Amino acid sequence: MKISVIGAGNVGATTAHILASKGFAKEVVLVDILEGIPQGKGLDIWEAAPVAGSDTLVVGSNGYAETARSNIVVITAGLARKPGMSREDLVAKNTAIVKDVTEQVVKYSPNSILIVISNPLDTMTYVAYKISGFPHKRVMGMAGILDSARYRSFIALELKVSVEDIAAVVLGGHGDTMVPLPRLTTVGGVPLTNLLPKSRIDAIVTRTKKGGTEIVNYLKTGSAYYAPASAAVQMCESIALDKRRILPCACWLTGQYGLKDLFMGVPAVLGKNGVEKVVQIKFNKDEKELFYKSAEAIRRTMLEANI
Fold first, then answer.
1. Tens of pLDDT, residues 126-174
2. Is residue 293 part of a domain?
3. CATH number, domain with residue 104
4. Would residue 105 count as lying in a domain?
5. Residue of 117, 174, 205, 209 marked active site
6. Do the domain assignments include residue 57?
7. Pairing relation of β-strands 2-6 and 72-75?
C-alpha cells in the first residue's frame, strides 16, 4: 500500500505523520512545490518511526515521479482561508491548483483513489473528478468526518461524557449549509434530544457549522489541520484495509436522495474500490429542506469553478 499526500503544509504534513504512525501503508510520499520542505518534513517523520514503532517509509519530493503507482492520493494542495475569507473566495485560485495536481496524479498513478481536502471541498472534489476522468467511486472529498467529529466533540463538552459514546453524523456541503442531524444523534444509545433542550442542541449545531471559522479566527494566519488530517487518515485506513466503514464524505450522487451530478456529504461505505455504496437516510421534512438547500449552494459554487 502506497499513499501519496500532495501538499506539505500543515494538513498534508500532519496527514503524512498520522499515516506513518498508523503503519498500515508501506510507503508515504509527501509532495510540495517548495524546495526542501517535503524532504525535510518527510525525513523528520521517518526519523520518528523508531519511536512510533512503525516501518512506514516516508519520502519527500518536489516532483510526482516518486508518487508513481500510488494506491491512494490525498490532495491537500491549495490556499488556506484567512480571516474574513469565505470558502467560495478560494474557488478560482484553488481550481487552478487542484487541476494541475490532478493532471500529475493521473499521469503517474492512473489507478489510484483520490481523497480531496482542498477548499471549497465539494467543488474541488468535483474539479478533481472532471480532470481525472476517474470513475466516480474512486474520487471523494473529506468533509463529513471532520464536521461530525466537531459536532461530537462539542456534545461531549456539553454533557461531560466520552466522545467514544457519541454516535452522530453531519451531511451536506462542507460549510455554513452543512446538515447536522440531532434526531439521529445518540449518546450511549440514548437520543440526544432526550438529554439536552432544543436551545442547547441548536447552539451546538451553530458552533459546528462555524467550527472552521472559529479556528481560523484564533490562528489568524491559517486554518485547522489536526482534525482534518485525522479524518483523511480514517478514510485512507478504511480503503487500504478494506474495512468497509460507513463514513460521511463527499460522494458523487447519481440519483440518491433525488439528486445527481454533484458531490455532496453523505454516508458511504468505503472499501478497497473506494466508495462502495452510498447509504440513504430517510429525512423528515425539515432535514430534507436543509439538505436540498445545501445542494443548491454546492451547485452554485460548482458553476464558479467553470470546469
1. 999 999 999 999 999 999 999 999 999 999 999 999 999 999 999 999 9
2. no
3. 3.40.50.720
4. yes
5. 174
6. yes
7. parallel
